[in-house]
Structures are given as structure tokens and as C-alpha cells.
């Protein structure tokens, strides 16, 4: 588990598109980052572990000048403190943040969640696939559609 | 003679011209030096030619030409000019000059030329005028011939159409001429035929004789018209003249006549009676469907035939029939029929025709009438034949029926009468007289005498019934009434009568009827009537008992119904019971009805708890064996009389037992304060019936109450159970959803890293391979724990130890012993309350709850330097609330509800799976308790819960 924190995504190139990953499960976050790396997709990827942290991250640019607003947010639904739906609602209600594309990436296939996400104007809803090939396709899709 | 006017300002020229031109003798010349004078001359004289100089002082020749032309366009004009005036020449010709001559040539030549031109100009004018006159002449004929005409050019276009044609087709000629083809006025279906016809005929036409063709036309609005077209080529031209005679009105009139005839034939065809028509020569011209059916002879085989052929299907031979009486004067025909009647022009007859219907024969009735033309001459005849066999038979049956009726009336001992309504004379049969003690012929013959015999009380009713019938309100009258017997007694009779004949105004002429002796029947009826009355009261009573929602009220209403119909003063019900101490049979008043409405006296304690033994010792036995007690009051036991006398002055009474489920439940009784009644058997049995109904109602009401209670109870239990099941079901759904979600989560990781691992293995990147494997291992461990906890959670409530009474304190002690290690490690100070109540719970589970809560508190202690946990209890009203309180990090209020969800984690720092509090809540729920949180961030946390106490 400790290794996850030590793992850093390669950031040698300046001004790459920035993606914010909101994911409470460290193994999931790790896997998603590894997939980006595996596919050689040139992005900066920041990871936060719960809804509160996500909102703090997003509002930080007000205080820190060089803090960037992400080009895409990948958002899990089941999160400690503030869940994904609440985070999404906050983003959409904020003047500065509402334009950021948000794609839900969750294990939930429940209609209620999907409906709620789209009601809150999510840009997409993806169910975490059990198949690794599918995950790669999904990440490619996210990159080409929302970042590339 | 050609008349010339010459104008020139030079008098010499004028003189020379006159002499020269008049020399030939056919030209006369008037000369004028002034144009003004010349204009005057033109007004009085008719000139053929004007010769004018060009150069003149008043006006030049061109101006003069224009002036002349304005008034006299037809006079030829010759202009004389000097040489070299070509522009004048052109202007003159443009303004209507006929010729010009130049004056400077040799005089001889000039005048020779001039006289030639004069003759030529005059000739041209005359020809033009003749032509014009001729054209006008023909035009007048064309326009006023009274026939629509059109001239058609070689292309078929109408070049001229007259006003008649305009009228027929609704166009004005300008719309037609040169624009529309002639065949556009012909109905489309006729066009091709007509074109072909004209082509053939007009091509071969040698002479100019017109060709006729009758055709359908069409006007500008598309209306149908009919016309006769005549076409004729105009000689020496390629044109044709077409004349159209409008015969539309004629056609329509013809059509109408044809349609009227067709309608007539249709009417005859579908007349229900067999009908045929002959013309004046005796030929059949119509033979309708009904007569085809009657005779079997089809139209095709008879139409057009004469010589009495129509008689064959009826009589087998060709002989004159009824219809021939109309057209011929042969009176011998009449002898062939049963009778022959005449009314106006119509002849009626009847005959039996044995041949008809394959020899079955039929009575026929026939009517024949003449048919007239417009002048009133007979042109034929129509005959209608009707099969009247059924009526004939009915008539015969009627006659026979009358004989039979007389026979029956005599045999049935019915009095029969027949009254002449005009004279009042009455005929009666023998039995009528005998019924009233007379012999036949002894009764007076007039209606007045009859009215005297009717009972005075019955007379109004009898008269009304008769009058209603006479007025036509009823088909007959019937009434029961009394008639006076010879010996002065009254005889009940049933009387029934009917008008048999009326005149044209509807006034009755004759009325007949019967009377029947009812004396015996009336007596039987009276007895029956009384019983019926009571029975219907009993029925009403039963119905009240069955339908009244309030059963006490139902019984009271039933008693009233019985009381009123039995004509008694009181109805009462007493209920029996046994003294619990002495076992004595007692009875108490329960229900009552009284004619005087003084029911309240019954509530007197004097009629409660009456002892059978002390009133009339043998009554209990009699009544309990089901027998009634009845009779005059004075014959009742003395004690009974005394008791009753306090409340009611009964003269007679009837009492029957009320038996409920084989038990002598009580009594029902009737009391009469006025007459000493003989209670007959029907009254007794009807009261028994009511007693049974009341018994039924009492059982019913008792059962009703029990049933309703049972039903309510059952319904409540079903409701509770349903709610419980619904809650369980919802919980199960939530549980399954959570489990499936949380199991998919580690699968995502495992599969993902297996994918990554493959890649890393291929590359031989050992460092990453280690990470991948570590990941998979971690997640697998986590998954195992998730499964274990899910299973555990599902067991709670399903697998339960029986609840036992246990002191809460002992469970706290056990839990603390089991978490001793963690407490020591976290250096947590524990304080535990005293005086614990006893609870009735599954001991193992509650210990588990306490362990969970203590461990949670230690886990989320945060940076607290003096960690502390309080375990205690407090009273909240009747309830005991248990709590575990710490001074750790606390929980945000908006998280309070979520923390009990399965696998919900506030954050990832505690290292738990998120199942702990879900399990705790589940255990408390299963025990029927409640659990809630009091906490805020950095303010510590207090978990409260309730449990069932002893």
C-alpha cells in the first residue's frame, strides 16, 4: 500500500493536459494511472482520495497563481466525506469550475446513479470494467474525446 | 352618273376641268373655289369623288382631305399637286387620299388621266359599299335567325358566334371567337363520334345541304344541355357554319315522362298484392313480382300476350277475367264470381279458385280499375288479386267459436247477459236468473232494475268500472260486487263485460258479459286474507331483523310490524337467565312495542328478574318444551294477572318461547287490551316464526361481533406482517446491491493489475512486477475480509441465539476484556458506569456491538493526548439509553447517517472495511432498539442505543 504514495506519474514534459482523478481506492487510482502510462498518453495526472479533497484542489487556483484548472475530472461516486454526486453538483454550481468536463468512473451500474449523474450534468458515465483490455479502451476514449 | 366635286382656287382650271370631264357624258362636275363652300356643298349633295388642289389660300389640300375624311370617309379623294412634292403625296395617301396627280403635265393627258382615275375611284367605292351592304345583310340574318350559329374556320376554331350561341353556352362572343374549338361545346363522350361523323359527311358533301346530329352539349359552367347540330360548308371557303337548336328543355321533359313511367312500373312491381296491367287491346303490359309468386308464371312468359292469357294460371283456360269487365261490356263475366261490387270506377269480386297453389286452391279477392290517358279515354286496366283464404277460414272459425262459447257458458254455470245499449233491452240466460232465486224470464228486462239489485255500497265502483270501459279506457271491465237475492240476502258475484259493437262515432251499441257466483270463494278468502296479512307482517319483521344494521333497532321494528298487523296493543320480549347462586329460572324484559307508545313503563324494575317459579311454576316447563301459552287474561294464573295489571289492561294474550340453539332463550308475547281473542293456529304459528327470526337475529348479532373482532385482529396482523416483510425486502435489496458493488471494486483492481502484470512480465521490469503482485495480494486479502463480513452481517437476525436476561454491566466487562490489548496500546482511559439494568438480549451479539464501538473509538482517536472512553447509561423518559463516548476526532453531522451504511468509510485512514457500524446497527435493529450518533468534528463522538429491558 505504501508504494502507491511513492509512485509518481512521469512529468518531464511541460504544459501537458491536466487530468484530476478523484478515487478513494488507492489500487484503483494506481491502476488508472498505470493504464495512462501504458498507453503512452501525454498527460499530467493528479490524484485526490475523497470529495472534500477534490473540491479543495479545484478551489486552490484562487490562492495559488500557478495552480492549473484541470482539463478533465475523472470522478468516482462512492467517496468518503463528500460523495461523487455532491462533488459534481458543487462543480456545476461554481462559476469558475462549471465548464470543466467531468466523467464519472464508477463500479455502480444502478440506474439511479446514472440518472442522477446525468441530471447533475456529468459529461459521461463509465462503469469500471473488470476486463483490462476494456479499461485500456476506455482510457483511450477518455483521452481522445476529452483531452487530446 | 358619277358625281364629282372639284375644289381649286384657280377658276380657269376649274372651268377647263368641268368642260373636259363632262365631255364623256357619264361624269357631272360641281366646281368650288373655296373649301368652306365645298364643305357646305357636301352637306347637301351626294358626291362620289372629290378633286382638290393642294395649294389653296384657305387651307391646303391635306387639311381639306382630313376635314372631309372626318365626316365622309367613303367619298373618293383625288389630290392635285405641283411637281416635286413627294412628301405631300405620301402624307396625302396616309390620310386616305385615293389618288394623286401632278398638275404640270400636258392638259390633255392630265384630264384623260384624271377622268380615268375618277371612274376607277368611283367603281372602287361602289364595290366596297356593295360588299359592305351584303355583309351586313348576312350578318343580320346570322344574328337574328333565332338559332344559335357559329362559323368554324379550317382549324376548327369558332371564328364567329351569334347571340343565341352566347345564350346557350353562357359565353360572350369575344371569349369564343378565334379562341375555342367548336367541339369544346360538345360533351366529352360525344366529341370523338361527332368529329368522325362530320369528317365523313362533310368531306363527301357535294351540295351545301346541312347535316343534322343530335348530341349532348356542355356550357361554360359544365351544365349538360342537349341540342341538334347542323353543319354545312360555306362554299368557296374552308369554313363551315354550324347551327345549334337547343332541345334541353324538350329532353328534360322527355326524361321526366320516362322516369315517371319507370316509377309507376316500379311501384306496381313491388306492390305487395298480386297485380297486373293490360292495355286496351287486352295485352299484358305489367306482371308484378307478387303475381309471379302467386301464379308461378314469370313476367317474361306473359308480358305482351293477349287473348286472356293471364287467366290461364288461375282457371286453366283462356277466359275473360275481372279485368275484362273494365275494358269490355260483356256482363256475362260477372256470373263467374261469388259477387261483383262496383265503387266509382273500380270493380271488386271474390271467387274460390281451386287450381291455384298446385291444386290446393285459394279464396281470391280481386279489384280492377281502368287506366286513362290525358284525354280521359280508357287505355287499359289494372287488376289486383289478394289471397283471402285465411280470412275466410277465420270467419268460419268465428262462427263455430260462438256456438262453442254458448255451450261452455251454459255448462260452467255462468250467468250470461247481452244488452242493447241503445234501447236498454237485456237478454239473460237461465242461470243468471237462478243465481238470484228467479226462474228465467222472471227478471225485469231493463238496466234500471239491475242497478237496484246491486249493493248500494258497491254501486259506485261498479259504475266506474263500466264507465271506464264505455269510455274506451279499458279493453273490458271486471269487478266483484254483491247482488240482491230474491230472499233479500246478498250474493257475491264476479262480473265481467265488454262492448261488442260500436257505431262509426265509437258509441257502444251492444255489450255482453257474464257473472259468476262467488259466495263460497269469498268466505274462504276472508280467512286467507287475515293469515296473509299476518304472514306479510312476519315477512316484514324478518326482513327488518335481517337488514337492520343495529340489531336492537331491528328487533324493535320487527315487533312494531307484528303488533300493527296482528291488531294487538302490545308486543314484548323477555330474556331468560338463571340466578348464578340459586339456579332459579328468571326472566327480564328486553324489548317491547306498545300501540300507545308508553313503552317506558317496561323499564320498570318490577319486570326485571322475574322468577318463573314465583309467578307460575309450570310455565317454564311448558314454554321450554316449545309450546305456546294463550287465552283470556281471566284464565291466567292469579299472580300473572296481578303482575300484568300493574302495567297493562290485557284482556287476552299469546306467549310463545324463543329458542336459540336448542336453548329456551326467552319469550315473545302479544297482548290485546280490547277483545277476548281466540288465537287461531295460524296466528300462533306465525308468531313462532317471528320468534325464530328474533332468535336468529340475536345469534347473528353475537356472531357478528365475534367475527368482526377476529377480522380486525387478522387484518392488523396482516398489515404488520406485510410492513415487516416489505422492510426486510428493502433491506435485502440494499444489502445485495452493496455487496455486488463492493465485490466488483476489488475485481476491477485484480483484473487490471493482472493485465498490467502481463505487460511488465513481457518487459522483464522486476520492480513493477513486484508492485503489481503486491497490489493483487492486498486486494485479494481485502476481498476475503469483505466476503467474511458480508456473510456475518447476513447471519445477524437469521441465525440468532435465544434472548436471555443479562446484566448490561457483565457484557461491558466482557467486551473490555476482549479489547484489552488495543486499549493498552492506545493508552486509553476507560470509565464505566454502575447500576446497570438487566436487558433481554442475545448476549454474544451485544458484546460484539460493544467491542466494535470501543475499537472504533480507539481507531479514530486522532491526535488526542489524553484519549478517553466513557461507557454509560441514562434515563430518557421510560427508556434506558446506553452509550459509548470518546474524546476523539468526531464525525461531521452530515456524515451521521452514512456511517451506518455497509462498507462506508469516512476516510481511508482507519484501515477498516467499513462494515463495523453496519453490523452494529443491524444487531441493534434485530433487537428492536434504535441507534444514533451525537458528535461533531474534533468534539469526540457519542454513540447511543436502546435495547429491550426487563
What is this entry, summarized?
Chain A has 148 residues and is α/β, with parallel strands linked by helices. Chain A is built from 6 helices and 5 strands, in the order αβαβαβαβαβα. Chain A has a single domain, classed as Response regulator (Rossmann fold, 3-Layer(aba) Sandwich), CATH 3.40.50.
Describe the protein.
The complex is a heterodimer of chains A (148) and B (950). By secondary structure, chain A is of the alpha/beta class. Chain A has one domain (17-147): 3-Layer(aba) Sandwich (Rossmann fold), CATH 3.40.50. Helix content of chain A is 42%, strand content 16%. Chain A has six helices and five strands. Chain A has helices at 2-6, 26-38, 51-59, 84-93, 111-119, 132-147, and strands spanning 18-22, 44-48, 72-75, 102-106, 124-127. In chain A, helix 3 (51-59) packs parallel to helix 4. The longest helix of chain A has 16 residues, at 132-147. The N and C termini of chain A lie far apart (31 Å). Chain B is of the alpha+beta class and 950 residues long. Chain B has six domains: 2-137, 3-Layer(aba) Sandwich (Rossmann fold); 145-246, PAS domain (Beta-Lactamase); 253-392, Beta-Lactamase (2-Layer Sandwich), CATH 3.30.450.20; 405-517, Beta-Lactamase, CATH 3.30.450.20; 526-698, 2-Layer Sandwich (Beta-Lactamase); 796-946, Histidine kinase-like ATPase, C-terminal domain (Heat Shock Protein 90, 2-Layer Sandwich). Chain B is 44% helix and 24% strand. Chain B is built from 28 helices and 34 strands. In chain B, the strands form seven sheets. In chain B, strands 12-11-16-15-14-13 form a six-stranded antiparallel β-sheet. Chain B has a six-stranded antiparallel β-sheet with strand order 24-23-22-27-26-25. Chain B has a five-stranded parallel β-sheet with strand order 2-1-3-4-5, with helices on both faces. In chain B, a hairpin with a 2-residue loop joins strand 31 (868-876) and strand 32 (879-886). In chain B, helix 27 runs antiparallel to helix 28. Chain B is flat and about 185 Å long. The N and C termini of chain B lie far apart (163 Å). The A-B interface holds A 1, 3, 7, 24-28, 30-31, 34-35, 38, 49-50, 78, 80-81, 107-108, 110, 128-133, 135-136 and B 737, 741-742, 744-749, 751-756, 759, 771, 774-775, 778-779, 892, 895, 904-908.
